[in-house]
Design a protein that fits this description.
Layout: H1 5-13, H2 38-45, E1 50-52, E2 55-59, H3 62-73, H4 78-92, E3 102-108, E4 115-120, E5 134-135, E6 138-139, H5 142-146, H6 157-168, H7 178-186, E7 188-189, H8 192-199, H9 202-205, H10 211-214, E8 227-228, H11 231-243, H12 246-249, H13 252-263, H14 272-277, E9 281-284, E10 286-290, E11 293-297, H15 304-315, H16 328-348, H17 359-362, H18 365-372, E12 406-414, E13 419-427, E14 435-436, E15 439-440, E16 477-481, E17 484-490, H19 497-510, H20 515-520, E18 524-526, E19 531-534, H21 543-548, E20 553-556, E21 563-568, E22 571-576, E23 583-586
Parallel strand pairs: 19-20
Antiparallel strand pairs: 1-22, 2-12, 2-23, 3-4, 3-13, 4-9, 5-6, 7-8, 10-11, 11-16, 12-13, 14-15, 16-17, 17-21, 18-19, 21-22
Length: about 575
């Protein structure tokens, strides 16, 4: 199994077209903007779906895809493949995920009705309080909160991977670490995207712990093609391979993380007790019958599953399936469904151990039919109000907390119907910028609200509380028909993940596209604010029509990073988003 040389060559060719990590709108989740040549790069990078008869894996980096494919070729399970690929992603894509972060995973085993949902989301330290990000009655600026020890939550990824392997792996645990250890020792080439993000990150450049690894003595980002070696990461992997996940949560590795957080100029309060107490939660997957398909996603504290399920259900009440994908009408209906879903998401979804989430009411077919009736064919509703779902016990304050888009997704699948759809993250690009033992610590606690109460004094559902898991928009999805999976997909992108994933499901399930074509569809949608359309795509041509329908339209870049797999009569299709550097590979 060899890595495509054409894909590696494309990295160098695309160097001048890489992403720049810039800016956050005060009232909205940021999207990392592409440079002006991005649309041309996207068109050049577009490719047919990967096809294979037996297995398929799609990740955000070719080296990670290769590692996962090696495990499948050896007879490993989809869980084995996902773990090996993720360990490589933490090395070669450190801006997005890693040992110092967390994530969510759906795992389905062929022939079984269950969809296993693993919650490896970070938790707030036991010492955390609701006013964590407040100073003198005012919140810290968002990036001051991000680049601090205060933003670091207890990492959950390592425990989640270990739980998946214990229950669904067959290859030896230590063997899954081999590809990442080899790359960490021998080195890997800095990709155009990593270089561009390094060049644009003043916070990382200013980090005493991270700068020596990512920058030269003059403070210049490691150039494209520079071979980056990480012996510290290799040592950590070697210890975890030999001793298991406990070595990460107790002893010297745990102490090093705690000391690094405490030593920051704005120290945090992560403790060794927090690490020792961390547990993965096995939740019941959130599933809904929508038309002929059963859609399954993550339950809270992720809002991604419920919001995508709501959107797909709402769109069943519209004529979108019969519309041209790049038409103004299709964008209109898709955006209106997003407004309604985000209004409910912002109001009702948080960690269910702390907030009573009316999850069944939010997915009640009659409730969704009443919500869909608010969609007018000729006019945008503007800003949607949250609904009143059945089973609601108490009203809650709207809580649209900011989420950053530095995340990654992978899918590993085989022809029998075994599949992992997994989204992992350290939150912002390069997380908290705290670098310890070769990996970065997350800043996931800034996914909580910076405020504790709203203007009326009502507690915000997503406020900081000890041991709480911050709300997320991560949306790994698996869709079934007649008991067998037909599509698995997910994406990075902050709260825009919800629209990215729903768009791809509309493309495959309603417009009958292959997975690659559906991923490449122009990104669009509303997060209950403006209607966002992807710059440099045919959607720019319908902006005037949308404005005439009452839409406030923003044309922005959307580096979505979708990864997906689709089952066909001939085997498997794999799709990877050309807006980033991923690749799908099968055998």
């Amino acid at each position: 199994m060899s890595l495509s040389l054409r894909k590696i060559a494309a990295w160098s060719l695309a160097g001048s077209l890489a992403w720049a990590a810039l800016g956050v709108a005060a009232q909205d989740t940021a999207i990392v903007d592409l440079n002006p040549e991005a649309a041309t790069a996207r068109a050049a990078a577009a490719q047919p779906a990967a096809r294979a008869p037996n297995y398929m894996i799609s990740t955000a980096n070719p080296l990670a895809t290769q590692a996962g494919a090696q495990m499948l070729a050896r007879g490993g399970t989809v869980a084995d493949a996902a773990i090996a690929a993720q360990l490589v992603l933490g090395l070669v894509e450190p801006q997005s995920s890693g040992l110092g972060g967390g994530g969510f995973a759906l795992l389905h085993r062929a022939g079984q009705p269950a969809v296993h949902a693993y919650d490896g989301r970070e938790t707030a330290p036991a010492a955390a309080r609701a006013d964590r990000f407040m100073r003198d009655g005012r919140p810290l600026s968002f990036f001051d909160a991000v680049d601090s020890g205060l933003s670091v939550g207890t990492p959950g990824l390592v425990r989640m991977l270990a739980s998946m392997h214990a229950e669904h792996g067959t290859l030896p645990w230590a063997s899954l670490f081999e590809p990442a250890m080899r790359l960490a020792i021998d080195g890997f080439p800095v990709s155009p995207r990593l270089h561009a993000l390094l060049a644009g990150s003043e916070g990382l450049r200013s980090s005493p712990s991270a700068a020596p690894y990512f920058y030269d003595e003059q403070g210049r980002a490691r150039p494209v093609g520079h071979v980056l070696r990480n012996p510290d990461y290799a040592r950590v992997l070697r210890q975890l391979a030999a001793e298991g996940a406990d070595a990460f949560y107790r002893g010297p590795l745990a102490r090093a993380m705690v000391d690094a957080v405490a030593a920051h100029a704005v120290p945090g309060d992560l403790s060794e007790d927090d690490l020792a107490a961390y547990r993965v939660i096995r939740r019941e997957a959130l599933c809904a019958e929508i038309g002929a398909h059963r859609h399954c996603g993550m339950p809270p504290p992720s809002s991604g599953g419920v919001a995508v399920l709501q959107m797909m259900s709402l769109l069943r009440h519209t004529p979108i399936a019969d519309l041209r994908p790049e038409s103004a009408e299709a964008v209109h209906y898709f955006s209106e469904a997003g407004r309604l879903a985000f209004a409910d998401r912002d109001t009702y979804v948080a960690d269910p151990a702390f907030v009573r989430v009316p999850i069944h009411g939010l997915l009640d077919p009659e409730y969704l039919a009443s919500r869909a009736a608010l969609i007018r064919p000729e006019r945008s509703m503007g800003t949607a109000e949250p609904g009143v779902p059945p089973g609601l016990v108490e009203s809650q304050a709207e809580d649209p907390a900011i989420e950053q888009p530095a995340t990654t997704h992978l899918v590993a699948a085989d022809r029998q119907g075994n599949v992992v759809s997994m989204t992992t993250s350290i939150e912002s690009a390069f997380g908290s910028k705290i670098f310890v033992n070769g990996y970065l610590l997350n800043n996931q606690l800034t996914d909580f609200s910076l405020f504790a109460v709203d203007d009326e004094g009502r507690p915000l559902p997503n406020r900081v509380e000890p041991g709480k898991r911050p709300r997320s928009s991560m949306a790994p999805m698996v869709v079934f028909k007649d008991g067998r999976p037909v599509v698995a997909v997910g994406a990075p992108g902050g709260s825009a993940i919800i629209n990215f994933v729903a768009k791809t499901l509309v493309g495959t399930l309603m417009w009958d596209m292959d997975i690659q074509a559906a991923i490449e569809l122009p990104n669009m949608g509303s997060r209950n604010r403006a209607t966002e359309i992807e710059r440099g795509t045919p959607l720019e041509g319908v902006a005037a029509t949308l404005r005439a329908m009452g839409h406030e339209v923003r044309e922005i870049d959307f580096p979505s990073g979708l990864q997906g797999v689709r089952w066909t009569a001939d085997g498997l299709e794999g799709g990877a988003d050309p807006r980033r550097e991923g690749v799908a590979m099968g055998g």
